[in-house]
Amino acid sequence: MADPSPTETNGTPGLAGAAAPRAPAAVRLRGVSKRYANGTLAVEGLDLDIAAGSFVSLLGPSGCGKSTLLRMVAGLAPLSTGRIEWPGATPRLGFVFQEPTLMPWQTALDNVALPLKLAGMAQAERQRRAREMLALVGLSEAASSYPRELSGGMRMRVSIARALVTQPDLLLLDEPFAALDEITRFRLNNDLLRLWEAHRFTAVFVTHSVFESVYLSERVVVMAGGPGRLHADLPIPAPPRRDEAFRTSPSYAGLCRAVSEALAGAMAA
Ligand SMILES: Nc1ncnc2c1ncn2[C@@H]1O[C@H](COP(=O)(O)OP(=O)(O)OP(=O)(O)O)[C@@H](O)[C@H]1O
């Protein structure tokens, strides 16, 4: 059985760095805390390095601050204390929400092209790029369909294409597949992995699912709540190509067991 050699941090500042990745960090969080206006302390004193080009999952019980953390990295929520550093050039960010949040009155093509339109790109070029992205997510045929004409999985594909059309260096995904059936979810997991292999953006993926986190990631960061903090940092040694053979392998089962145990620890913490 593969041994992921988890680094239990138990929320102790400093120990989180023990599993720090060797590649240069795309983003570095230092002493990050978030207290909402109503007094809720959602995240406290969090240190985390995310290696450039890596695929990292944030896993933890409901309410432990995963979305808050992701929104702070995206600049959508201000920090209360601490800092977020970008050691390289400031990256282009892409964000995929749990809901596809498409414009209902626009076609799939126009939804994907929207960020380019907002950036002031000429129509012919933005449509060309949007078509290319739709092809990458397997939706060429649906370019002129409206969101209401698409299935939940197709809508999520459009949403991913829209996030990738600006060629982000850092893709933040907040439980993007939580509302989908398992077959669609597995398919989109594979689509996302193929896109990541092709483009090597840094991916930070928030999920509740141990199985999904192990399937997708090179590293699973387990958070505990009350207030949100790091609990464990687990490398996921897996074959370079993750596919159905990996999903049904004993090593996958072993890794899932180790991550489940860390999650149970986080819930008890
Ligand atoms: N805008 C807000 N105002 C006040 N409190 C908030 C706000 N957003 C989140 N919280 C609180 O902050 C804590 C962390 O919430 P957050 O959504 O980040 O957790 P989460 O781990 O992503 O949860 P889930 O997995 O259920 O989506 C929770 O206690 C939540 O109630």
Automatic annotation (TrEMBL):
Segments forming domain ABC transporter: 27-250
CDD domains: ABC_NrtD_SsuB_transporters (cd03293)
Coiled-coil intervals, chain numbering: none
Top-rank taxon, per record: Bacteria
Compositionally biased spans, kind Polar residues: 1-12
Key words of the record: ATP-binding, Nucleotide-binding, Transport
Source organism of the structure: Muricoccus roseus
Database matches in PANTHER family: ALIPHATIC SULFONATES IMPORT ATP-BINDING PROTEIN SSUB 2 (PTHR42788:SF19), TAURINE IMPORT ATP-BINDING PROTEIN-RELATED (PTHR42788)
Similarity comment: Belongs to the ABC transporter superfamily.
SMART domains: AAA
GO molecular function term, any single one: ATP hydrolysis activity
Stretch list, region Disordered: 1-20
The name this protein goes by in its record: NitT/TauT family transport system ATP-binding protein
Organism lineage: Bacteria, Pseudomonadati, Pseudomonadota, Alphaproteobacteria, Acetobacterales
